[in-house]
Amino acid sequence: MIAQRLTGSQGQKKEEQTPSSQNSRTLAIFMAGFSALASIATLFGGIFLNFWPLYLVSAAFAISFITNIFVISPIWNASFGIKIFTATLAIELSFVLAGGAISLTYGLPFAFVAIVFAFLFAAFNPTGRLNEWIIGAGLIGALSCVLLGVLTPFPQINNLIASIIILALDLVALVVLIRLLISGLITANLRLKLILFALALAIVPLIILAVINLRAVQNSVTAQSNDTLRVATEVTVNQMDDFFSSNLTSLENEASLPIFLAYLNIAPTLRENSEEWVELSSTLASFQTKGTLYTPSFGILDLTGENIYDTNQNNIGKSESSSDYFQNCMTTNTAYASTVEFIPNTHESYIYFIAPILASNQTAVGYLRMTYDSRIIQAELEKYSGLIGAHSYPMILDENGIRLADASNPDLIYHSIQSLGGDKYTSLVTTGKIPSYIPETQITSPIDEIANAIYVAQSKPYQFFNVDMQSTNTGILDSATFAIMSTQKWYVVYLQEQTAIVAAQKSLTQTTALIALLIAGIVSIIITIVSNLFTEPIIDLTETAAAIANGDLDTYVNVTSSDEIGTLGKTFNSMALQLKSSFENLENRVRERTQELATQNDTLRYRSRQLQTVTDVAREIVSTNDVESLLNSVTELISDRFNFYHAGIFLIDEQNEYAVLRASSSPGGKRMLNRQHKLKVGQVGIVGYVTGSGSPRIATDVGKDAVFFNNPDLPETKSEMALPLKIENRIIGALDIQSTESNAFSEENVRLFTTLADLVSVAINNNQLLANTQAALTEAQNLHRQYLNQEWTRRSSDIGRTSYKYTAQGLSTYEEDLPEVKMVFESGRPVTRSGVQDSSNKITFSTLAVPILLRGEVIGVIHLQENEETNSVWSENELLTVQTLADQLAQTLESARLFEQTIRRADRERRILEITSRIRSTNDPQQMLEITLEELKRHLGASQAQIVINVPGPLSTIESKDNNDSKEA
Hints:
Layout: H1 8-13, H2 19-49, H3 53-72, H4 80-101, H5 108-123, H6 131-150, H7 160-183, H8 190-255, H9 258-265, H10 275-288, E1 297-301, E2 307-310, H11 324-332, E3 336-337, E4 341-342, E5 349-358, E6 364-373, H12 375-382, E7 392-397, E8 403-406, H13 422-430, H14 448-456, E9 465-467, E10 478-484, E11 491-497, H15 499-549, H16 564-623, H17 627-642, E12 646-652, E13 658-664, H18 667-674, E14 678-680, H19 685-693, E15 697-700, E16 719-727, E17 730-739, H20 747-799, E18 804-807, E19 810-813, H21 819-827, E20 831-837, E21 844-854, E22 857-867, H22 876-919, H23 925-940, E23 946-949, E24 956-959
Antiparallel strand pairs: 1-2, 1-6, 3-5, 4-5, 5-6, 7-8, 7-11, 9-10, 10-11, 12-13, 12-17, 13-14, 15-16, 16-17, 18-19, 20-21, 21-22, 23-24
């Protein structure tokens, strides 16, 4: 044992007077002062660093301080060994919490201090009692320090000052431990020596191997992450290059169509409304349909760069000869794709694709130009976000460091990742390479790591570097690499947050530490077992005697020898048997009565679960409109509440041929769901029988009607019950329940689950009716919207005027295409713009465009313009007022249209009635035909009318009379 034990009352009376006792009190005073200083230091550290786990450490050291005060005071009336053991537990708890709160080599320094302090308490224990428990507490505390340092549930602080203090404390503790060992104040018995040696032998090699393995696997994880990052970059670059190359190839093929050459060969004055013009219009309109997100516009340029035809009417007549794309295509006579071109003083930017229109001698006679909104780049790039995880995303930079697309921060598009400088900014704005609406002071959103890698160091593609994306606010670096596109002078940068790498490394560290601790614990247990073999007989005998004294008559001594200890063990066993026999009958009675009560309780609980399951299914039916959710919920409830192996629901298909599995609670059933398992109605299996006959059926693997269950997905089935799902007398499916027990189902189960099946049938029928009703409603709404669109389109075509403008001079027609109106027609939502400047008269104005909605269909737009000296913003109240007016106007216009339609129909009926009355005024067929022709000419405003009668012989023709015209018969 550690130190020298003092036994007997005389030793306890002299406890306070021995030098060892005085030394122990000195140690307690020292520990109280140490705990107080540590508590104060961690408290101020938690306040200064705003780190709440330090408050827990401070509280633990405060408890240790109070415990040591009680140790040195006479208030606590207990033996000194118990006091020392309690103080050990308190200080060990403090070190364990400190190891979890301060990030320092996974708690190993704290573990070392915990062991040293346990040895100190044991060395200065004057009685020597509980020394093994004190050392054991130190070992458990050391292991807990390492375990909590690896698997800490709260955040850890990495502070240099705290690390220096802990390392200094470790050094002092090591010196003290060596001094105690040399002086012989610390002694141990053989069992404790074996345990300590086993721990040292197991932990030191494990730490070395764990560190080596950790480094190797960390390097492997990093390399694997870099490979996936490179692959994601390659995929993104290839796809973006494919976007440009495919568009160029497509444009070249389209430029070779004969219609373009035919149109250019016509004299300019004869082009409009010619057959070639009509065909050209339809051809270019069909080209526009290939743009699913942003519809491109197409234009025809002559050899001088003048736009002679464009799907965007505003571009016709403009000269594009000074543009880079036109100059490049004209010089090389090949197709060309431009970079992003920003329109000055606007928020618009485009990408231009141009290809020459070649004559038969391969000479250019014109150019076909396609224009895309530059936002297509962002849309295309976002397709490749998350290729290698949720926190991976690409961005595209041009040669000036401008973000042309960013899948992570779309708000920073067209901002630079490096400082441009005043002259360069002005030059880029002038050449249309950056937007003019972003001021120089706001256009820079720096990412120094990417800028240095690409533009400063000019690193080679696919080199890896770390980026601190401060916008993510995660504090975790991003791994990044880049590549250059072949179709543009653009850089594709792909970034991946290192969360996965950090998590993998942390998981690896935790696993390694756990394995090391597990092995150390196993070795310690083995050594402890070996050491206990020497003392096990006596300890076993003592524990048996204590157990019998406490009334545990089932305990007996395992006699393995024939010596005196074996004889004493046999005597104890005989005494225990005699005492046990006297209580056996009484215990049997109590056991039988308890078993009866337990059986009754089980029956009541089973019935309660049955009723609760029915209630839950009824609740699901009321609250769920989705059939699939309901079916899955029912199967899960049945399996969970009744502990059945499998529960499934089959529904009969529309042809009443197969019962198809629609929901299942077991893993095997889910595999059957994935392959769309179905059974022939009335033929295959129990489910087929039930869906064919409409009667419940129970099958089992025992008895005279035994069934062999051979479903590979449900190999453990030993009994099965299937019940039909009915709606009135129509069978719609079956409820299938399987158990791993034979004879698991009874008639009572059939009655209960028949009720469940009826509830499910009603729910399925209700959901089907609801789905049919919703589908019919949706179809009616769609048809009505189509009708409104058709009628108002026809109305606009009939009147020939679609826009009106009201000014101070009055109401007039308006033909100009306004972008706000187009945006409202496309989106169906109000559009406001402020601070817009008219380039012709330099007037600043604000606009408001509000849709005129009729049952969800946009039939018109109210466009308001307010000229202001300063920028004006349309208020929410103004927008609400105009929107309310637009809603009332929509109803008024629709009423007017319907009224006009009614008048036209009445007029048409009146004319038909007049013509019919005149025709009936004569009985001569010839006069009937003449009257018909005259009335048709008069009412329809036709210059000539004729009736051709197909009778045997020559065709007879009756024509209307026109001055000198005559009729023929």
